[in-house]
Design brief:
The protein has about 190 residues and is mainly β. The protein has a single domain, classed as Porin, CATH 2.40.160.20. The protein is built from one helix and ten strands. Strands 1-2-3-4-5-6-7-10 form an eight-stranded antiparallel barrel. The longest helix has 21 residues. The termini are far apart.
Length: about 190
């Protein structure tokens, strides 16, 4: 698959997702906490796991394999809605480490820009992204790969893993401060 084919596939995916996003009702969209699946690029493929940690932030781990190397990447990503909660664009950054059969170990820094669609009524997330990298101790000083990812939603959730930890919980909970006898309840009194 050439770079031109990847661009055409990405443009087609954006068109399809834009039309499908208008058909999906926001009330029917299911957000996710954890999703895992496959990532397919021009010269590599591998596994992807995405974990929601804050309301609009995820951490993504990639394990990639190509004909001459293996690598692992960790990315922090910030998501922004386009047409409700099902269609998002995102930006991120991170780093990677790997091993090349010819040159040995390498590492580098990654940037990321992409679009993601949570398929309505099905626990699948489709994404297309562009992930330029700066390489250290590699024959290439920079790479500019694009890839498609298909992830299965493992854990559905409407809130982030750390929501409320720093006082950002939007849900208001009513707590009873007095027991039926009229005295105040202690911290560990149930």
């Amino acid at each position: 698959m050439t770079f031109q084919d990847m661009r055409r596939a990405g443009a087609l995916l954006l068109l399809l997702l834009g039309g499908a996003g208008r058909l999906a009702l926001p009330a029917q969209a299911q957000k996710y906490r954890t999703a895992a699946g496959l990532r397919l690029g021009k010269n590599n493929f591998g596994l992807t796991v995405q974990q929601k940690v804050f309301e609009k932030t995820t951490l993504e781990g990639l394990g990639l394999v190509s004909s001459r190397e293996v690598s692992a990447t960790v990315l922090a990503e910030r998501h922004f809605g386009i047409l409700g909660p099902s269609l998002n664009y995102y930006f991120g950054a991170g780093g990677h480490l790997g091993r090349n059969k010819d040159t040995g170990g390498f590492g580098g820094f990654d940037a990321l820009a992409g679009v993601e669609y949570k398929v309505a009524f099905v626990p699948l997330v489709l994404s297309f992204d562009f992930k330029p990298t700066i390489e250290i101790n590699s024959a290439d000083w920079a790479r500019f790969p694009a890839a498609l990812s298909v992830r299965y939603v493992l854990i559905k959730d409407k809130s982030g893993l750390f929501d409320g930890l720093f006082g950002g919980d939007k849900k208001k909970h009513k707590s009873k401060t007095k027991s039926p006898g009229g005295s105040r309840k202690g911290l560990f009194d149930f």
